[in-house]
Amino acid sequence: MVIEFHLDAGSGVAPYLQVIQQVRQALRLGLLDVGDQLPTVKDVVARLAINPNTVLKAYRELEYEGLAAARPGVGTFVTRTLSDGSLAAHGPLRRDLQRWIARARRAGLDEESIEALYRDTVRAATREEVI
Amino acid sequence: MTAVLESSGLGKRYRRRWALADCTLTIPAGHVVGLVGPNGAGKTTLLHLATGLLAPTAGTIEVLGGEPASSAAQLAKVGFVAQDTPTYAGLSVADHLRLGAHLNPGWDHGLARRRIERLGLDPGQRAGKLSGGQRAQLALTLAIAKRPELLLLDEPIASLDPLARRDFLGILMETTAEQEVSVVMSSHLVADLERICDYLIVLVDSRVRLAGQVDELLATHHRLTGPRRDPGTLPAGWQVVEESHTDRQSTLLIRAGTPVHDPGWAVDPVGLEDLVLGYMSQAASGAPARRPEMEAQR
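^ inputs. structure came back:
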């Protein structure tokens, strides 16, 4: 088996999304490559004690995104990786964010306030996109 | 898809007390159903009615299209693990498998033996000497090896330690991935149910409070926080499950078919545990929960 999934029950993130995120993460980091087989549904549910539909839903979503493809009776395989373009953008974005955090600290915000403000802004921006 | 369990006006009375009342349910096939509720809510009664161990006082119940326990074929379709996963203390693990083979026409001996091997159980060991987790696994193995279409489990993991619980649920989920079997499982442990269930039934005070697919329930329930509001001014489409108010703030758990766009509310998703607790507390304090000081200040 190439990768193993884990679940954070307290994260508030739906289990199928956690599976998707972990596959994406593995693709970004190059742990998974084109042609690799994702863990079988049976293996995942036996290990994590989760509903098979949770895994099926995650794999269907990955197929929809063009990252994986199912071969009936065999399993689900990676068809595309993510270890490319966006990685290069991380550096500059991180530096911007560090500058912003320094400004927030100077303005008197503690860590909790900074995180709350960040989360709230991301959520509001996401909601605007949806509407 | 056909229903694995269909009941209409189903009730069971013991002397003067209704253990289950006016229960109308349709559970579609292919789900792992969590049956939750406080002690004495009627969970065990509902499961016993579904197996045919109890006969209804009122209404009707059909399981996989037939009357519970009405024929040998009906019995073969339903697997049942009773509360505290009972086994015969004096019989060995191998005896249990032999018993299972004699009593069940569809017995899958290979499957039973493989499971016992994988669990690392000694076939010669008496069931009375097994740990709680091993006993639960033995009881589950017996229920699975009869190859049922519906598996009914009454609080199977309540007395197990967290590791044994995870192992038990892992095997249960592997079974649902391999075989076409629907599961109805009662439990107090909502955190565990959250991982395995895609359908939920909340029973409180002998009645069904909530039933539906988990995805749908989570998508239509929201936690709202905002400046204090008079509950009378809320939109008509909202069903308030739980509410609490301070001088300045109102916190609501609502069920609404459409998304909440009112910018006056901070909207958060609701987890399964909060959802269940919301419906339980609603029943405990008279629906819906309302603080007395609210009335005084109006």
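Chain B touches chain A at residues 32, 166-167, 169-174, 176-178, 191-192, 194-198, 218, 261, 269, 271 (CB under 8 Å). The first helix of chain B runs from residue 43 to 51.
thumbs up if we can close this ticket
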